[in-house]
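Course assignment 3, question 2. Fill in each field.
Student: A.L.
Task: Predict the tertiary structure for the chain below.
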Amino acid sequence: MAKGFKGGPKMQNPMGMMGQLQKLQEQIQATQAQLALETVTASAGGGVVKVTVTGDQRCTAIEIAPEILEDGDVEMLQDMILTAVNNALDQSREMAADRLGPLAGGLPI
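Answer field:
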């Protein structure tokens, strides 16, 4: 044995750690299930396009005001849809990070 070796850090109770990990996993799964039920809605073009996304980043609705179709400006409509989708996804990711971050103890999810 090397001089000054003291056997390393004292190991915690492995069964207690397993129980804590299992409890944490259950909390994360419950939070993920709740996020799947919650939604965020983002809009573009002053509310002409609205996109709804769940907390687990699933798009559930896209609403387009009929008056925008009268213009016939497809590129503008496409841009508004992209903007609304990306904003809704950003909001959804932020909501998930807010809910799951404390459970993960700062680990990236």
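Instructor remarks: The chain has three helices and three strands. Residues 36 and 58 are 8 Å apart (CA to CA).
Grade: pending
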